[in-house]
Design goal:
It comes from Mycoplana rhizolycopersici. InterPro entries: FAD-dep_OxRdtase_2_FAD-bd (IPR003953), FAD-oxidoreductase_2 (IPR050315), FAD/NAD-bd_sf (IPR036188), Succ_DH/fumarate_Rdtase_cat_sf (IPR027477). The protein is an alpha+beta fold. Helix content is about 30%, strand content about 20%. The chain has helices at about 15-25, 40-45, 55-60, 65-75, 80-105, 160-165, 175-190, 195-210, 260-270, 285-290, 350, 380-385, 400-405, 410-425, 435-440, 515-530, and strands spanning about 1-10, 30, 50, 110-115, 130-135, 140, 190-195, 215, 220-225, 230-240, 240-255, 275, 295-300, 305, 310-315, 315-320, 330-335, 365-370, 395, 460, 465-470, 475, 480-485, 490-495. The radius of gyration is 23 Å and the shape is globular. The relative contact order is 0.18. The mean pLDDT is about 95.
Amino acid sequence: MEAWDVLVIGSGSAACASALRAAKGGLKVLVIEKSEWLGGTSAMSGSGIWIPANHVAAAAGIADSRDEAIAYLRAVTPEGWAEKEDARWVSFVQSAPDMLRFLSDNTPLDLRVVAEPDPYAEAPGGKMVGRMVSPMPLSRRILGRFAPRLRRSTLPHTFTYQEVVDLDLYHHPIRAGLRMWPKLLWRWLTNSGGQGTALMTGLVKGCLDAGVTFWLETRAIRLIQDSDDRIVGAEVERQGQRQTIAAERGVVIATGGFEWDPQMRERHFPGPLDRIGSPRSNEGDGQKLAASVGAELDRMDQANIYPCLPTRYQGKQHGLPMTFQAEPHSIVVNRHAKRFVSENDFNIGEVLDERDANGAPVHLPCFLVGDHRFLKTSIPFRWYSSYDRDWVKTADTVPELAAKLGLPADALVETINRWNEFCKTGHDTDFKRGENGWEAYKAHGDENRLKPIDKAPYVGMTINRSILGTKGGARTNDKGQVLRADGSLIPGLYAAGLAMANPFGTRAVGAGTTIGPNMTWGYIAAEAILRQNR
């Protein structure tokens, strides 16, 4: 039997934040990862990190406070969630700034403010800048023997998050490459990357320096309880052998979502699915382990949902998150050929996934429709769409396009005519596309907000839900401790990241709502472990 103080299951940002805090607190920590790659979904991400009242913004002279952040969360989170989630919102806001400073002090991460507004900047406590940070590039070489084991991404990690935004890489990749080529060459020569590569390089390096041990290709298959029902370790499968790991101070589940388990996904997300953009190892291991010892699973119908382009990853079809649905000369319609959301809405994924009283999708299947000028706005779109040659449909008339998409022709003609009238007046009366702070920022100027769909040939394609990570799992209290359905604690068991019942759910309160809170909950769980008397 291997004996440790803390066992962390998973190796993404939540897992590493938890492992690092526990190790810096003097505990002996083991991180196990079932795949051959470190970093989980976080390593593939754009690494936008939403942390209110953070020290990076404060150093740049940007004012924010925990009170404003709590007011913002209470104003913009889903109706009816406050009664159940307010204590966890407060816990997140109180701990998040401390977590980020801890990472800055104990890893090589160089975090910078990203000039992005909150999606609901006009709400009480909202901010136009300061809550989004992302790391500067780091060389994988600092990870030593783990350097080749850091999970790669479908995103262009040679660029930083801010560079992707500032250079408008999606629309102008060649221009961006020409402007950046000396830096890009240097990063290639030094095996450096930004975004999720930089984040997980920094976190793993901090963990290694703090004495954390990593085991790859090690899958947890059973949690072990003592006579008092306390979680005291796990049985794992490693190198074809089963062995028992003792974890005297606690086990942290941070295994990611369950989107790659077909049965779980179809149970909780019925209806059309376009693509999945996370590692295939996200098969719900953590949710299953927690349930096996009596944990309440909650928020299982919540996920990080965002439009994805088709691509390939590790030789298989995959999703690439991209904001292609808000291009000029295009709109999004539901199965009735009606618009139902602003195409620039950051939380378009939440609206795509809207359910009726029986849990069935209200709008799906959904489609993006436009004219041929849509295809001219982005070289990357044309490149990635080639990975699914049957995806984009073209037609010489709107009724012909409707037939190819399976939409009612009269309704689609009416919807497009109504949109074209909005383009003439410059105002989207139905959904106010491009009018709030976030949408104006993402539109790249007023001239791109409202453009007509009136030049054949016409184009259309599905834009159903695509999942970047489910957000349901073990219910926890405000300390990250896992709970049973009756509210009692399962002692010794903690959950963080996408393996926990997320207190924000599908609705994102910032572009980095997933990673920022995930790391914070990993940190919170470790803090709770360190405060135990045992």
